[in-house]
């Protein structure tokens, strides 16, 4: 415990210093970070990230798999975590089937664009994206409508069921989702490069990484404004005490549904981008475990804090991929991805007990946890056995 | 829509539906008991059931039965089934207790918000299923064919098998036993008191933590019975076998009125039957969707379930 509190102390100190810096300095710092993230997938740059030990080279990039692809996957995960953070962190609702909306987005794009689809619409990718977002949002409203009026815990099981039902439907339905065969030939995003070749091809994951990174930055700005608006204040009020919020005149159902729908929309958007890169999807792309991984990312990073969601998303996806390369270095053959769910399931349990506010906590939310802990009934604090 | 299939096989669909529904009902009891006392959806309960299916299989393997062995004579059969049952019940109950002690109790002590409980519950569920998944290399396992299915008599043109009688009989016995325990015994009174009002119950001298532990044990025991019946009837298990069963059992518990023991039985049987009718009507692919659709529709129109929510009878 002392080690963790020491570490948090250091982190909090860094944060205080950062907040105290002049605005210009902070902007420059942020700009440097963004530039770093944009040049990260270039080989001439990331090759220098690491240090030699003896004849070996200890790399911070992934040596086993293509670094740009891993970065893209991580970014997908970060975007999902940022979206789920709205539902879990801001509004305090538990959505266990977040991957369901991701699947809805991906399938909407696939069905509208692929020449192999039953619909035969053959839309370009870009035109299908808004539709995918809308469809994901509508499915969120359909799910949330009946459940959000009730106790919050029903939402958890309904969303859990939803994600699995979407996957089962995709796996079994031969007519529309085409079962295990899936839907191939989904077009890439549009655009041609300076050399006349298509900007988004199959050889490199780099353009897709840049695309999703841009989307993440835009979404983060939108979210920050949202959180500081009337809507964001309503969410905090609902999270802290729903009954009190209702009495104070906050239309709780409306704002809960908004949080849920916005989360679903971000999930749908992520699915649409994924479909555009992958060009082929089937039901195996949407395993339920991933919903839990996204949730673990949000909890680990610190629910209610956008930075936390980013950190959590990056850790849950990047760390296992990177560890495979580290295993090579020390001569151990193990596939960290195999244990990913197990490890992050344990992490979630331990975090909930010892550090429910996450690694990079939202201050207000951390204070809520501390308050509740103080209010714990004394008889509960001392076990009566 | 295939009405011929539905009405042609109506009696058969009903009896097999009741058989499946009995298993849902036994698992649903675990959700209902915990929910009634703690107001918590214990997501790990589906894994409590899964642990039961595996431990029963391992018991039989230890006794020398495998997938290819022929059905044993009556004496050894009784021994094997009872041994499997005992091990499955103990294993399931212990799993439930471990989850309570390791995951939920520390949270209660810290007065964590409800969201934290739900997140822990789903974490515990995945930890359990993943550790079995990694340990068993995610392969499905076949069961020894201990009790071969054979028809006993015919009812309205539907053959009723020995297994169906066994499953329905065992479920009814367990159900009546549990109902009597909760409604008649001293410990049961404690459960009802905590379900009604935890703080007042504690003031009246009920040991709340012990009652909560008891509730997990009871739910685990019922899940163990359900696991054995599943093994005997469906003849396979897998690390994620609990997921769909758990989802359906939860739907069944809500259908009957969550927190209501008799409601769990009614909801389970009803869900099993409706599910079978739906698969007759729309085709087998749609069977697993029925419970989920039913759950959503129910939450829209009658969220308190058919029999209402009451483990402690009168509750606001």
Keywords:
heterodimer; A: 385 residues; mainly alpha; two-stranded antiparallel sheet; 16 helices; 2 strands; globular; disordered N terminus; B: 316 residues; two-stranded antiparallel ribbon; 12 helices; 73% helix; LivM-like (chain A)
Task: Describe the overall structure.
- The complex is a heterodimer of chains A (385) and B (316).
- A two-stranded antiparallel ribbon of chain A has the order 1-2.
- In chain A, a hairpin with a 2-residue loop joins strand 1 (50-53) and strand 2.
- Chain A is globular and about 60 Å long.
- With 385 residues, chain A is mainly α.
- Chain A has a domain at 65-287.
- Chain A has helices spanning 2-20, 23-39, 43-46, 67-90, 98-113, 125-148, 152-172, 206-227, 230-240, 242-247, 252-278, 289-301, 306-329, 340-354, 363-375, 378-381, and strands spanning 50-53, 56-59.
- Chain B starts with a helix and ends in a 15-residue tail after the last helix.
- In chain B, the strands form two sheets. Chain B has a two-stranded antiparallel sheet with strand order 1-4. In chain B, strands 2-3 form a two-stranded antiparallel sheet.
- Chain B has a single domain (3-137, 147-301), classed as ABC transporter involved in vitamin B12 uptake, BtuC.
- Chain B has 316 residues and is mainly alpha-helical.
- At the A-B interface, helix 6, helix 7, helix 12, helix 14 and helix 15 of A face helix 4, helix 5, helix 9, helix 10 and helix 12 of B.
Report a brief summary of the structure.
The complex is a heterodimer of chains A (385) and B (316). Chain A has 385 residues and is mostly helical.
**What's the CATH topology label of chain B?**
ABC transporter involved in vitamin B12 uptake, BtuC
Helix content of chain B: over 70%
Shape of chain A: globular
Strand order of the largest sheet of chain B: 1-4
Q: Helix tally of chain B?
A: 12
Chain oligomer state: heterodimer
Q: How far from one another are the termini of chain B?
A: 43 Å
Count of helix runs of chain A = 16
The helix content of chain A is 55-70%
> How many strand segments of chain A?
2
**CA radius of gyration of chain A:** 22 Å
Largest interface, counted by CB within 8 Å of the partner chain's CB: A-B, 54 and 50 residues
Computed structural class of chain B: mainly alpha
Would you state the CATH class of chain B? Mainly Alpha
Average pLDDT of chain A works out at 81
